[in-house]
Amino acid sequence: MSRRARKKILMWIAFLIAAGTLFFYLTQRQSQGSSGIYSEKQVETAEIAAELNFGSYSGEDWEGWLSENSGAYLTKTGLRSLLEKLGLSEYIQMPQGVGMRVGRAQWNEVYGQILDYLDMEAQVERGTFLVLDTMEGKEQNVLITNRGDYDTRLPLTYFEKWAAYEVYETEGACLGIVSVSGGEETIPNVYLKEAEEDGIEFLYGGASYRKELTAEVSDVAPGVCDIILKEREIVALRLKQEAITGGLLSYDEETIEIEAYGKISHTGDIPVYQTYGEVTEKSLSDVILGNMEVEYITGDGEVCAVLIRQPASIENIRVLLLAEGEKFRQEVFLKSDAEMQLTCGDRKETISPGTVINAADYEETPADGKAGPKTLVLSRGENEGVIYICSADGTPVSAGYAGTMEVRRRAEGYTLVNELPLEQYLAAVVPSEMPSSYAPEALKAQAVCARSYAYIQLLRADLAKYGAHIDDSTSYQVYNKTGATEESRAAVYDTAGQVLTYGGEIIEAYYFSTSMGYTDTAQIWNVDDDGAYGYLKAACLNAEACEGDLSVEEDFRAYIGSPAEGYDSDIKYYRWFAAADYRDKTETLNRILAERHAVSPQNICYYKKDGKTEAESPEKLGKLTGLAARERSASGCILTLQLDYENGMVLVKTEYNIRMLLGALVEKIVYADASESADITLLPSAFCAVTPQEDGTLLLQGGGYGHGLGMSQNAANGMAKAGMTYDAILQYFYNDVAIENLSSTESK
């Protein structure tokens, strides 16, 4: 290490120790004699304090300097003292011609040298932005600019609306002002709502703005444009007229895929504007994949804005087909029992029935290489055939899929997406989630729940980067593991378009396999807003009168240990017990706790021995010594599981976390029909009693299978057998819901 490098390191350490206190005291003195007005002739000490705030600082070395330099503005004496405190006086020369107060240009020269010596990680940069608006905050103010929002500790009186500034910035914060910029600045991709002789109105960054015009702007119609300003005045409006129209198929951080066009790169944070009805700004997630014709405004070969010209017409759903739970496949072979049309970029072929398609034969990469390989699309046209996933020799390895199949090549492997009409999708969901042998009214109830749930997922499109709304697993709804049947088609047809609504909004209609006599509320998920799940109610499914509140441990034990008759009490999962052993499982449980804590830290809480002081992790708490249900819901579900350690404890919330932890301890589970299983990782439900045994093991005595929210599928079948109609079944399980037609809800 050179002598100069060692000096820089030592100076950096000294700076870290000293600058924190400088920052604190200077900001405290911000209002003491401060004008709060930007000036080229002088620099306020408050601004200097903000500009030195680019690291983690501590120390109390600045009291003396502040007592000597207590004024609002940086002086020649103060600057010399500052350089001495930073240990830079022998490396940075005082600027020439400094009077009593240091001018902005002189300070910029010195500050640049300070950064050269001390900002070794180049945290502070110079940038330019145009101020559109400002917001006052408690600790920091916010500048709304054409380059995004910036936090700042500077007074908002430093900034004028529509003015451009060259600034010192770091990680989304404006530290100080270099100068007022006299150059042109662009507000890109705004939506111009109206342009008149006296001014314009436009949307940008989620807000609406008006700006006067001093020069005549002619022939400017509403649309996407760039606004060019110089010295606070609009000098040009550049309307963007190049456009592509088509359905949105997928999008990620770099590209957007358009139906019948392919992938095209985009500018990053793409603005989306709704132009029908009230013109408003939306987000890309508001564009429903595959169900909405939209217009894409382009420039320089990129999508720079999206226009929603009309409401969505929900017809199709796009399903990511998993391979043994994984999104990516290393190979894809497809065939059909009817003639198919294949497209891949400019390549178009007619595929004969039974022909095996190997996706690897169609990996055509565009010449520019920007968008990656083209999407392979296999469609049925007007015929009624189905597509099979198969092996290389043509042996089917899946049920037949209706609709269209899309294959995309990514670095991790192939993804496979099945697009088909929503009602056809539901016909293959219902038998995959509920046996077709169940009573017709139960199948209808399942169809309405599945349609409601699917619609919500259509709006969210969590898997948009894969070109899908949902996948085919239990993470959403199981699809096509059992093909559509005559019974499932009838249930879907008889309830066509029907969804459940609560307060006028379609609900996420949760359902599960089997109850233990009760269902529960969203309390078991420890949600922040119970009101959002007001349609989930605690329902009693027993033939006799409800037992009442099961939140008391003794009452729950008495209930779960006694026989009961209910709508799903003939199902083996209605009651079960399991042998569990936590001894020598400390490491296993700690690993699960760490994984779940990373997902939702509010639901996995570590405490030291006093039960109040938080701990960093369970590894330092010693060995696991026991566990017990600490809190229950009125329906009997464990709300909080307490794990006791030698030197502390861990509190676990949410039914899924509790089932995962207890499931890891189970050696064998016995169901109500005396059948057994030794191969479980997730406890059937969190409606269970945890009882220590004399030999140190645990007895888990519980009932039900699934999360316990919404409709019990097996209870629904029991109700249907008892003569209840599907609408009565749904009203029984969900609170204050209505059954409405999907078309009527979309028109609201």
Major sheet details: 7 strands, mixed
Q: Please work out how many helical segments DSSP would assign.
A: 14
Percent of sequence in beta strands: 25-35%
Radius of gyration: 33 Å
Going by helix content, strand content and strand pairing, the class is alpha+beta
Binned, the helix content reads 10-25%
| Cα end-to-end separation | 71 Å
Record the strand order, biggest sheet: 13-12-11-16-17-14-15
Mean pLDDT metric: 88
Tally of strands: 41
Low-confidence stretches: 12-33, 56-67
Sum up the overall morphology in one term: globular
What attributes characterize this protein structure?
14 helices; 748 residues; alpha+beta; single chain; seven-stranded mixed β-sheet; 30% strand; globular
Explain what this protein looks like in three dimensions.
This protein is 21% helix and 30% strand. The chain contains 14 helices and 41 strands. The strands form 9 sheets. A 7-stranded mixed β-sheet has the order 13-12-11-16-17-14-15, with no helix packed on it. Strands 21-20-23-25-26-18-27 form a 7-stranded mixed β-sheet. The protein is globular. The termini are far apart.
